[in-house]
Amino acid sequence: MHGLSDTADTWLVRGNGSLAITLANAGYDVWLGNCRGNRYSRRHVYLDPDNDPLFWEFSFHEHAVYDLPAIIDTILDETGSKKLNAIGHSQGNTIFYILGSIRPEYNEKVNLMIALAPVCYLHNIKPPLYTLFTFIPLLNDFLKKVNINELFGTEKIPGKILKALCSIPYVGYTICIENILFTLLGADPEEFDRDVFKIVNTFFPSSTSRKNLDHFGQIFKSRRFERYDYGVIGNKAMYNSSTPPSYDLKKVVMRIALIVGLNDNISSLKDIDLLSNQLPNMVNYTVSPRKTFNHMDDTWGKNMAVYLFPYIFDLLKEYS
């Protein structure tokens, strides 16, 4: 499962050097999921994402409680298997913690969950991302007032402008990667070159909801891994409590392996330590020895076969 504003394309960027193709070539049956709202997941029985704000009334909670179980059940029904192994990047592993907590019966359906760049607590994200997160509530209020519910989509005018800017030869890489993405997520130019940037720029970022970003901002502000905050009145109606309840990580009894990078500005070691101390069945906690390993190297890195894939294959072999 991919991360925030991403798509299943992220697992294929490097062709034969990408994780999905490498696993398939090794004989694994590989399924790639998409979270609702991105370019591949915009169909609905009666809501139009371009015209109905209600379509965008979701955060990663709905990804975890509704979308992920549907994906898992489809795979198990199609294959006749009783369990599957899962790999998630960033938000793509956040939703598994929530799944195991809210729908504990799915713990039995996941043999092993490999969490790349784990995201749960956000107490210790690094600047300037820390500063940007403090403004998410204000941004959410503004977007709500102007009725903007879809974020980052390349079909909208702001997305088209960003894509055009990033597509400018030479200058686009400097602006979008060196000055923006590396600043926010950790710099590693050796692993993310101009050639792969041209590919990534065709699909990233993809759409997500305003509510999803706001939920991450809420977790940052409250310093709790909790459900969405609808305000006192809304919380009373939704949860019978004035505050949103925390997700109970002690119920997440599926096997989980954490793989972490030292140069990751989002998934800090302090926050991952908080997560690891609450997971009852954490079977592995690996900190990559590669000093420049950032938040993107798990999916887009040039040499993943050297510094990442051996850990993944060892885990799959040990627990399958």
Explain what the structure shows.
Keywords: Glycoprotein, Hydrolase, Lipid degradation, Lipid metabolism, Signal. This is AB hydrolase-1 domain-containing protein. InterPro entries: AB_hydrolase_1 (IPR000073), AB_hydrolase_fold (IPR029058). Belongs to the AB hydrolase superfamily. Lipase family. Pfam families: Abhydrolase_1. The protein is an alpha/beta fold and 320 residues long. The chain has 14 helices and six strands. The protein has a four-stranded parallel sheet with strand order 1-2-5-6, with helices on both faces. Strands 3-4 form a two-stranded antiparallel ribbon. The protein is globular and about 50 Å long. The two termini are 19 Å apart. The mean pLDDT is 96.
Give a short synopsis of this structure.
With 320 residues, this protein is an alpha/beta fold.
Protein structure class: alpha/beta
Strand order of the largest sheet: 1-2-5-6
Distance between the termini: 19 Å
List the helices and strands in order: HHEHEHHEHHHEHHEHEHHH
| Number of E strands | 6
- Mean pLDDT score, rounded? 96
What's the main sheet like?
Answer: 4 strands, parallel
Keywords, please?
two-stranded antiparallel sheet, 320 residues, globular, alpha/beta, hydrolase activity, 4-stranded parallel beta sheet, AB_hydrolase_1
